[in-house]
Amino acid sequence: MAKYTFDENGDTFNFFVLTTLAIILIPATYLNIFKKTVVAAKKNTCPCDACHKKASRAAAPRKSSGGVGKKSIGILLGWILFAFVAYQVYITPSPEVLKWNPFDILGVADDATPKQIKSAYRGLSKIWHPDKVNTDLREEADAKMAEINKAYETLTDDVTRENWEKYGHPDGSRNSMTMSIALPTWLVEAHNNFWVLAAYGIVCGLMLPYFIGKWWYRSGDFTKDKIRTKTMGVFFKQLKETTNAKEIVEILSLAEEFKEDIVSRPTDEAALEKLGAQVNTALENKNGEKFEYSKKSTLPASLKVLTLLYAHTLNVPVEDKDLAQDQVDIAAKTLHLIHGMIQITTARQWLSVSLALMDMSQILVQGLYFHDSPLQQLPFVDAEAVKALKGKKQVKSISQFMDMDREDRAALLQEGVTADQVDQVATVAKQYPELKVHKAFFRVAGDNIITPGSLCTFILKVSAVAPGQEVEEEDKAVKSAKDDVDALFEGVEDSEEDEDGNIKPKKEDKTPAPAVHAPHFPGEKKPFWWVVLGDHKNNRIVVAPTKIADVTSKPKTIRVQFQSPPRPGQYSFNLFIKSDSILGADILQDMTLTVLDASQLPPEPEIDDEISEPDEDSIAGQMALLKEQGLAAAAIGGGQKGAPPQSKGKGKAPETDSDSDSD
């Protein structure tokens, strides 16, 4: 039977504590030192100067926000405890593991003869036999004599000796194993029971329920999208159907996330005052407006957020390192909060506010101001260059800019631009795709028309094409199923012919879209698009926005289901496809939905549910014939005795039965 022992000198227990502390402290220390609130940009492949500066900012170590937090203190105390336990391990001698040896117990050599073993046994028995010792040594003599007897039996009995030589113990494998529990002996001693139970009660009865309850109640403070419920409540109260872009920024500054997560420092006031003056100057130079705080933004955290967001959209450099660090955090949080706002406005079916929030997402990612030209996303294109492009060449988009000759593009850029920088502009321009709509229509499954209240599906096929890139043409060799509306509706529009001549759908291309060019946004940004069906005249959303991602040069099909209007007629909708990251790449297209009365549906084809009779030559036919003849004979025999039997041939059922079937 295995023996269980406790750690008497604390050696094993110290190793257990040391390992546990290392598992906790090493990752906690790494995250605390190298923590970043945003994802750092990956290896920079863009040649523009702004992206190089962004990569340098991402690679630079972040300055600690003022003061030492509770987490840092806890980690420091943990390392102090780790050092103390490590010192205890160092000074505590490891226990010497002694192997049970019968020769040593009897005091004979390993090659002793049976006669020598017997002689040694007798000599020790005369010394340690309980009857030979004093009364006060009898207990020790009993234990000693038991060991002597076991050693003598091990060396004289063949089976016992074989067990000892094989397992190291005379009783065999079961008793040769000793299990050590990594708990110190003092933990299980009787006089410490009160303190051990008290500690157990405090940890399991008080601390564990407290932390679990704290976690539970804290989880209720956030929505499923990790936005504070108080923030969503503020957004719900403040957002109106007529809210404009500037009011959106003010409402964003009221979010609880900024009050809780953004650190307030004594030096912020002077730095913010200086930055606010710079923002005011930039705003006056841009459109003659003044930068003023509204009555909504009165808290210090809200004023800081408002100032830093305006500085971000106006490209005003933030000289204070602490504020620059806060600006990075605020920009990342604000983009997430905008999505929460869109949930509220779409639930209320407000079209204009929802579109304004989507525009806000674009200018936040690109670091531009309201109503700035999409051309200003390119390097070396300032407001003067935009005026020249719009005035002389009627160029308003990046794709139109790329259609110009290289010399014309160079002439309209900022003064002093080199030839390499002109090429740099062209390289950056190719990172801004333009959306192409290949197909857009409504359809009801199984019907050729759309009836009132039916489950209608809006089908959209789009691709994102870079300026100068040709749109991929569909394969003409593919059979007509490719252009068939039903095939597109069922998701097999990208069909192809296999080796056997069968039409099969192509495998969906899952190539991810590249990251968007956003030199002023912290971290890497993966683009996605909102697809919205709305009524611009009534300012109402007809179909809630659908997010689509990974739109590449290969056409992608999107299906959105909704219930068709309850009355017949023609309904005019507006299709909006809005980017969350790129200015000037949006799509606005008019759509018409024709709803016809259900009476115009074609009649359903009759289904022939009659079962054909089996052939007489088959086994089923012979069985059916015998059955019919047997039924007929029983009917005749029961009603008319002596009636002649029916002639051979196909039996017939009674006329009443067939009539009921024919009806």
Automatic annotation (TrEMBL):
Protein name: Sec63-domain-containing protein
Keywords: Chaperone, Endoplasmic reticulum, Membrane, Protein transport, Transmembrane, Transmembrane helix, Transport
Bias (Basic and acidic residues) ranges: 501-511
Membrane topology qualifier: Multi-pass membrane protein
Provenance organism: Linnemannia elongata AG-77
PANTHER family (alphabetical): SEC63 DOMAIN-CONTAINING, TRANSLOCATION PROTEIN SEC63 HOMOLOG
GO CC terms in record: Sec62/Sec63 complex
Pfam families xref list: DnaJ, Sec63
Main location: endoplasmic reticulum
SMART domains, sorted: DnaJ, Sec63
GO molecular function: protein transmembrane transporter activity; RNA binding
Stretches with biased composition (Acidic residues): 491-500
Gene3D superfamilies: 5' to 3' exonuclease, C-terminal subdomain, C2 domain, DnaJ domain, Sec63 N-terminal domain-like domain
J domain ranges (all copies): 101-168
Annotated compartments: Endoplasmic reticulum membrane
Residue numbers spanned by region Disordered: 489-519, 635-663
PROSITE patterns for this protein: DNAJ_2
Database matches in InterPro entries: C2_domain_sf, DnaJ_domain, Ig_E-set, J_dom_sf, Sec63-dom
Any one GO biological process: post-translational protein targeting to endoplasmic reticulum membrane
Spans traversing the lipid bilayer: 12-33, 72-91, 194-217
